[in-house]
Amino acid sequence: xxxxxxxxxxxxxxxxxxxxxxxxxxxxxxxxxxxxxxxxxxxxxxxxxxxxxxxxxxxxxxxxxxxxxxxxxxxxxxxxxxxxxxxxxxxxxxxxxxxxxxxxxxxxxxxxxxxxxxxxxxxxxxxxxxxxxxxxxxxxxxxxxxxxxxxxxxxxxxxxxxxxxxxxxxx
Length: 171
Known about the structure:
Layout: H1 2-48, H2 50-55, H3 59-108, H4 113-158
Helix pairs in contact: 1-3, 1-4, 3-4
């Protein structure tokens, strides 16, 4: 009974969290890819035309264009990192709340404190051991979601009909 309550608490918090953030993380990944490309474009164009930029006194306009994309890329990376830390905080909070609910349920069932303490200790120890792994899985899912837009572009590029790979033989 109490294990079901704890599992239900974790599921009811993690599933809505990911459903809510799924689109945001995809959008941040696409924007990161766009702004990283623009940063590279500005840098390449700036290095190839450095003489013209310096002679025509266009340094400030070049720096403004480049720094705009640097700031936007950093903003998207910041959002992703902030929300990457949330699962750990949410899991810990839900764990404490679930242990409190489990304690209340056991008390209302008429259990003595001497019987409740070992049960709470076992579940606390299990949560202490399981939470880092669950957090790593959730962070991995978020990181994967963040990289999906770039992977989609790579997949389109590699599945181009004119692009053919010959088999490579290693001897």
